[in-house]
Amino acid sequence: MCGIIGYIGEQEAADIIVDGLRRLEYRGYDSAGVAINNDGIHLRRAVGKLRNLAKSLDAEPLNGTLGIGHTRWATHGRPTEPNAHPHVVGRVAVVHNGIIENHLALRSQLESEGHTFSSETDTEIFSHLIDRTLQGGTTLAEAVRAATQAVHGAYAIAVLDVENPDEVVVAKQQSPLILGVGQGETFCASDIPAILSHTRDVVFLEDGDMAVLTRAGFTISRFESGEPVERAVTRVQWSAVAAEKGGYKHFMLKEIHEQSRAITDTIRGRVSLEQGEVFIEELGFTAEDLKELRRIVIIACGTSWHAGLVGKHYLEQATRIPVEVDLASEFRYRDPIVDAHTLVLAISQSGETADTLAALKEAQRRGARGAAVVNVIGSSIARAAGNVLYTHAGPEIGVASTKAFTTQMTALYLIAVRLGRLLGTLDTTQARELLAALVEVPGEVSRAIELNADVRETAYRYLEATSALYLGRGLLHPIALEGALKLKEISYIHAEGYAAGEMKHGPIALIDEHTPTVIAAPRGPSYEKTCSNLQEIAARHGPVIAVGDEDDTDLRGLADAYLPVPPTTPWTAPLVTVIPLQLLAYHLADLKGTDIDQPRNLAKSVTVE
Ligand code: AGP
Predict the structure, then answer these.
(1) Among 347, 350, 397, 608, residue to substitute to test ligand 1 (most atoms within 8 Å of Cβ)
(2) Among protein residues, the one whose CA lies closest to atom 9 of ligand 1
(3) CA-CA-CA-CA torsion for 590, 593, 594, 596, nearest 10 degrees?
(4) What is the pLDDT of residues 193-244, one digit of tens each?
């Protein structure tokens, strides 16, 4: 996620802005920039780490007491200097965090009016729109308001006008933006840490708000109606470190709670419910390409491999093309049988996992078509694959993958519907039903978090366990594997995920009163059989922690502990059922006092074999 900061006051703006951007580095970024409005707009941008921008400013300082700054997490356009923010067009400079859904239409409209673009970003559209209106003789606030009426999507923006040295104008729609209230100075920022060293008095803007910031303070209005509105000033009690985690104790917990937004952002602009269509042109396949395919091979590691196992179900059900899912570290060394009729799909949060990158290149060397689902724009796997569908999870700081996992499954869901529609193996009605279920998932994920607010009590009951078994069937087998991985990698309690149907072929020997079994059993195709497995475990005095529908009183009665989720469909069940398993692992680890965000021996990205 990008980071924004703006300042207007009596102090040198550049220092405050760079310091604020430094406190937003945890949000992840690949370039940064500053614009100072001081008898002209003076722009400085740099790719890579913030120190590159700071070095440039040390060499040639920018003076002035009014400015905006940005750290960019690339979503549209590669991490390059021309794509870095702020974007200056005519009189205005703009920084933006979010995604403009109708950017293609707006860009071609502006180009047809003679506007020329200097970047690949969607953000530059704001600069052109606001400058065009401003040139027509409006105030900056009116020009920004007009732009918000044209743009659809998620945005937090801060805007400067060279001819207006006493204002910063901001607007907020779905992306976070706060104001900071000082003495003779006013701030805006994506998040509290950026301004906490200057003021603890903040205003949380609401979606649909815009504000004019001056040295004397700020005024807020609704950009739809223009009506003025009051927002409370809140005094923040957090420490600076706590503020980076949004008040959560660990990044992992923050990222578990970010999943609803991350899934929304990954779906945004890619689905038409009316048409039953998915728009992911960036994946670049035509119906003719797909008709050539005989097989799809998914390659990944760890949690991403679990997402691939879910993706297999989606893709086979939607396209009837056989799908194989392989550990990248195994695939690359087994002399794999792939050719021009094989699509190899790499899944990776970091886009830098050595085994996955090497496996992808090996498959391409053998003639396979490559594609990837990746979270980091411009990463090695993204570049090697060529055809990429980006998850918009924002940077994932916690080593244990959570929002990357659910957005990977979301991306695979979209790909399966898209390929099914292209091949004609999914009709409009089927696609509409699948997509209607998908767009409900963000709300269901939030509900699952609410329903498990007391999961810590369940965790406490099993704190002494030294081993646990996780069981699931069908689309929930990968969720059992993922739940087990979450537990072992952050709490260091041994856990093993298994297909529930396999229990009698060995694992049942593990069942005793000290070994809890976590079983994923929401209502769905494998519900009855999974309930039988649960009863077989209970009959052997094995403690059972069941994940099931919130209204399933029968299942709740069979289990020793119950983790409720809202009702789901077969395809959406994995996305929702994993939530309580993430929370269970988190609270067990927290009760054990392990280093949850950086578990022992683990790295966020395994860039070596
Ligand atoms: C999962 O919680 C771990 N962080 C790990 O298994 C991870 O999924 C694996 O290393 C793959 O990483 P990638 O998605 O960045 O390729």
Answers:
(1) 350
(2) 302
(3) 30
(4) 899 999 999 999 999 999 999 999 999 999 999 999 999 998 887 777 767 7
